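Thread: "does anyone have the structure for this chain?"

Original post by V.I.:
We have the sequence but no experimental structure in hand. Need at least a predicted one for the grant figures.
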Amino acid sequence: MKGFLKATLTRQKIQGLFINSAVGNFAAYVAGSLVTLASTREVFEQRGIRNLFGLLPRKKIVVHMLPHWLEWLVALIVGFFVMEGLRYWFNHRKHAALLSGLQPRRSDEKDGQACDQPEAAQ
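Reply from O.Q.:
Generated one for you, tokens below.
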């Protein structure tokens, strides 16, 4: 058990986990924030009795185009998809590099030349 933990919990693996998690979580946060920014807008209040028909300065009002619960749910789902997409991309790159190194060379190739081509006369 002790050998398994030493082999599994190496510094490089833990550091990679923290970096991948931090990048994925940050990207998800940014994506969720962009959803919130896209679904809200600021406007100045209209003239009315509250601002003495334009004599007092107008206040900025935040207008939500979606209900709060729907805005929160869309931001959560988009953030989750971005985080999982980045995690898939990181893992795919890592496994693709490992698999490309394990592919055997074709048997009909020899030093960059195919076997059916005549070698240069010496």
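V.I.: this helps a lot. The mean pLDDT is 80.
O.Q.: and The beta strands are 40-44, 60-64, 109-110, 113-114.
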